[in-house]
Design goal:
Elements (H helix, E strand, L loop, with lengths): L15 E14 L2 E9 L4 E6 L1 H10 L6 E9 L5 E9 L16 H7 L6 E12 L4 E7 L11 E7 L10 E9 L2 E11 L2 H4 L1
Length: 199
């Protein structure tokens, strides 16, 4: 069974921002593997941190000279500076229960079978700001965590694209593609209208 790197949504109003990026992870320091850059196949560098659960995978299974599909959470303050947090590594053969008899299979083809592609992100949250001049908008994402003491459990993502001001405060599901250090809207769907009013 081929494991989907971006799981199906379990709840209609599930917030999330998760994506898959192919590249080579280059740590700032070999003694400290959790910070560095992800360099994609075009040579673009993205600032990256590796989260705890992915760090042990990285130490045990990953050859830092090779390119992998990284499962990442995006963060940004503007459309020019993307920051990624690695949550996992998608390797259908080495890290999943997938028969290795087809190791020559192109991972991109496997991703297509799952309706995904390199640099694809699934973003779900509340549309809180639209800038029609700059053609960008902001989605607020709330973490599912019940821990009240987490300061930055909610965060905002700035995405390039055109969304109508009429959609403000709606809960939207977006298909987004990474282009360099920017996230660009491919398509969107309104899941629920006027979220703020219903709270």
């Amino acid at each position: 069974m081929l494991k989907n790197p971006i799981p199906k949504v379990t709840n209609q109003l599930q917030y999330r921002a998760i994506g898959i990026v192919n590249g080579i992870f280059i740590p700032h320091d070999v003694k400290q593997l959790n910070r560095g850059f992800l360099t994609d196949n075009k040579g673009e560098k993205i600032e990256t941190v590796v989260l705890g659960k992915a760090l042990s995978l990285l130490k045990k299974h990953i050859d830092l000279k090779k390119s992998y599909f990284w499962i990442v959470y995006p963060k940004n303050k503007n459309t020019h500076h993307l920051h990624l947090q690695v949550a996992g590594i998608w390797d259908p053969y080495q890290l999943n229960d997938f028969p290795d008899n087809s190791s020559k299979t192109n991972f991109s083809i496997l991703l297509n079978e799952l309706d995904l592609k390199d640099n694809y992100f699934s973003v779900r949250g509340e549309l809180v700001y639209v800038n029609t001049q700059k053609r960008e908008f902001v989605i607020k994402i709330c973490a599912a965590s019940k821990l009240q003491n987490l300061k930055n459990k909610n965060f905002k993502l700035v995405i390039k694209g055109d969304l109508s001001l009429e959609l403000l405060n709606n809960f939207v599901s977006l298909d987004v593609i990474r282009d360099g250090n920017s996230l660009k809207l491919l398509k969107y769907e309104v899941i629920e209208k006027n979220l703020s009013k219903s709270n």
